[in-house]
Amino acid sequence: MNDNNSHYNPVRVRFAPSPTGYLHLGGARTALYNWLWARKNQGVFLLRIEDTDLERSTQDSVQEILDGLTWLGLDWDEGPYFQSASLDKHVEAAETLLQKRYAYRCFCTKEELEAQRKEAGAKKVAFMYDGRCRELPASRVDENLAKGLPYVIRFAVPRDSQSTVVFEDAVYGRLEKKGQDIEDFVIVRSDGRPLYILSNAVDDANDRITHVIRGADGLANTPKQVLIYEGLGIVPPVFAHMPLTLDNKKAKLSKRTHGEVVTVAYYRRHGFLPWSLCNFLALLGWSSSDGREFFSREELIEAFDLSRINRANSIFNYVPGDAKNWTDPKAIHFNATYIRTMPLEQLIPCVKAELQNAGIWDDAYETEKREWFRQTVDLIRARFFTLTDFSTRGKCYFSDEFDFDEQAKKKNLSKEPRLREFLPELAHRLDSLPTFSGAAAEDALREYAEEEGVKAGLLINAARTAVSGTSVGPGLFEMLDTMGRQRVVARLMKAKDLIPEE
C-alpha cells in the first residue's frame, strides 16, 4: 500500500468504467472531464477497468470501451489496468483495517438482518445495521471462526456525537456527514470478495490518484471512502462530483429506456465527428466563463476548470420516436456546424472513410480527381448534418446508383407530362454547349424555357430532381457545374422514364 498520496502535483486522474455493457454517454463525459483536467495540468490520465463483477464483466464490453475512447480521441497515459488484478491488495487493505480496529467481522445471519429491517419498518425509520457484532469479544470471534461461521467485514464508523466526516468537493464545496448517520457498511462479502467501495478507494490510493472526477451519484459513497482513506492513513484525493445528465422528463439516461441513442457507438455509426460529440458532452454540466460553446481541443483544454462544473443536473433533450431529431437537437446542430466550418483538410479524411464504408470511394479522388473531390465536398457540406449524409444525400455526386426522393419526384417530375420532351431537349442543348459551365447551363435553360413559354422554375426544379434525386441542395447551376456535362446529360435523358405520360 502506497501511503504517499498527500501531494496533488502532478495531477493524476482516472476513468474507471465497469465492463458490463456499452460505453454510455455519461461515462464518455466522465472520461472527457478527467482527460481535460489531466491535459490542462500536464498530468496523467489513467484507464482502469473495474472488472470485479465477474458475472457481468465481458471482454466485448472492455473492447467497446477501448474503441469508444480511441474514437473520441481521449488517449490515456497509463493502463488499461484491471481491478481484478489487484484483488490481493484489496484483501490486504481489509486485513489492515481489521488489525487497526477500523473494521470488524459481522456474523449476523440473513434472518437476523431481516428482523432488524422489519423492526425499523414498524418504527417507520430507515434501516441501519445496529452494530451488534461490533463489540464481540475476541474470544467469541475466535469461537465463531473455529466453527466456520460465515461473516462479512464491516467498517466501524465512529459513533460519538462529535464525529463528523468532512471533505471539500471541487463542485459542491464543503460537505459534512455525521458519523451517526452512516451505517457500519460492508467492505468484504461473506465469500471473501471485497466490495467496490473498498476496492475503488484502494486502487485510487495505489494509483496515486490526486483528483476523483465522477458523477454526483457517487457522492453518497464519498464519506464512506473518506473514512476508508483515514483508516488506512492515506490523505484522500480531491473530489469533484459532476451533475447527472437526465432526459427531458428528468429520468436518468439508460439503454433500457432510451435505446442505442445513449451509447457512444451509436454516434460513431451515425456519422458524428468525434470532437463534435466531445464538445457537446462537455457542455452537459460545464460552461465556460465567457459563454462560448464551440471549442477546438486546445481551446477546451485551456478553458476547462473544475470550478465551472455546474451543480444542477443537465438535460439531454431527446424524445424517442422523433424522426427529425433522432438525438438531442443541440448535438445535431453541433455536428452540422463542425461539418460546415471545419478546415477542409480535416474533413476530407472523414468523408473518405464514410465513402469507403459505403462502397462508393474512388481512388482517383486522391489523384486526377483530387481537386474535383475537394470542391465537391466543400460545395455540398453546407446542408449536411452527419458524415453519413455524404454517402446518402450526397451519393448522387459520387455514384450513378442513387435513390430518388418520392416527394421530390411527385412534386417536380410528375405534374407536367411535357417534361418527357423538355428534359431530353435540355440535355441535348447542354451537350451542345461549346464550353460546359454553370453559367452557360443557366443561360441555355432559361433561353429554352422562354422558347417553350414556361417558367424557368419548372425546368430548374425538374432538372434538380433528375440529376440529384432530391429537391434540395446547392444551387442547381453550381450542382450541374460540379457534376459535369457527361453525367448531367445522361441523367436528364434517363429522367424521362420517371415522368408519367398524359
Structure characterization notes:
By secondary structure, the protein is mainly α. It has 3 domains: 1-107 and 150-341, HUPs (Rossmann fold, 3-Layer(aba) Sandwich); 343-396; 404-502, Arc Repressor Mutant, subunit A. The chain contains 22 helices and 12 strands. The strands form 5 sheets. Strands 1-2-3 form a 3-stranded parallel beta sheet. Strands 4-5-8 form a 3-stranded antiparallel beta sheet. A two-stranded antiparallel ribbon has the order 6-7. A hairpin with a 3-residue loop joins β6 and β7 (173-178). The longest helix has 16 residues, at 25-40. The chain is elongated. It starts with 11 loop residues before the first strand and ends in an 8-residue tail after the last helix.
